[in-house]
Design brief:
With 249 residues, the protein is an alpha/beta fold. The protein has a single domain, classed as Acetylglutamate kinase-like (Carbamate kinase), CATH 3.40.1160.10. 35% of the residues lie in helices and 18% in strands. Helix 1 links the parallel strand 1 and strand 2.
Length: 249
């Protein structure tokens, strides 16, 4: 009669979320540079995202384009706002392709999905196809914002998160949460552990733009703001550790 198998010495960690959307700014890819993409930073982000995939978490990303072009800034200098926004959307596609390359060098299968059709470099956004990619364990990077001018990549992140039925938006920043004021400028600023959507709007805290916050509030989609520069922070958030600031009802 065979002997019973020995019990496992330690159980595998159980993620708090099964499907997440990670929102990154374009500036996150710059590193110490003044412009463009730092390959070392892209590789570090790719390793962190690969760690989420290893936990079995379905992961989507939305990335901005501010490291290359900012439509709003160009508009302030006299450029047509819609034209500037379209140029900014194309910048997000460049960042998405750079991040895709970094992820695939970590053996993470990735698809770039764009709201502006450009079949030579990325798939057009089709909601059911994007869901299928996630179900198959592929990372999906949503590029070109919503495909419309006058909407930010924050709004695109909220919209795509709801379309794919993500359980949370993870907002990676340079600080470890939301503060009463900019902690870089005011050392006495106090960090919130949790805060409501309405408080974010009323206090004009620069977490995401008002449209994105309102969308999340209407659909009860939580946002976790955390320091993406701290190694392992992305994994800790997904495992449910109390780091950063959570925005909920």
């Amino acid at each position: 009669m065979p002997e019973p198998a020995a019990p496992a010495s330690a159980s595998a960690p159980v993620p708090a979320y099964s499907r997440v959307l990670l929102k990154l700014s374009g500036e996150a890819l710059m590193g110490d540079q003044q412009f463009g993409v730092d390959p070392a930073v892209a590789t570090r982000i790719a390793r962190e995202v690969g760690g989420l995939q290893a936990l079995g978490v379905q992961t989507a990303l939305v990335i901005g384009g501010g490291n290359i072009f900012r439509g709003l800034a160009a508009s302030a200098r006299g450029m047509d706002r819609a034209t500037g926004d379209y140029m900014g959307m194309l910048a997000t596609v460049i960042n998405a392709l750079a991040l895709q390359d970094a992820l695939e060098q970590q053996n993470v299968t990735t698809r770039v999905v764009t709201a502006i059709e450009m079949r030579a470099v990325a798939e057009p956004f089709i909601r059911r196809r994007a869901l299928r990619h996630l179900e198959k364990g592929r990372v999906v990077i949503f590029a070109a914002g919503t495909g419309n001018p006058y909407f930010t990549t924050d709004t695109a992140a909220a919209l795509r998160a709801m379309e794919i039925k993500a359980e949370v938006i993870l907002k990676g920043t340079k600080v470890d949460g939301i503060y009463t004021a900019d902690p870089m400028l005011e050392p006495s600023a106090v960090k919130y552990d949790t805060i409501s959507y309405l408080q974010v709007l009323e206090r004009k805290l620069r977490v995401m733009d008002a449209t994105a916050i309102s969308l999340c509030m209407d659909n009860r989609l939580p946002i976790v703001v955390f320091n993406m520069l701290e190694p392992g922070s992305m994994r800790r958030v997904v495992l449910g550790e109390p780091i950063g600031t959570t925005v909920t009802n």
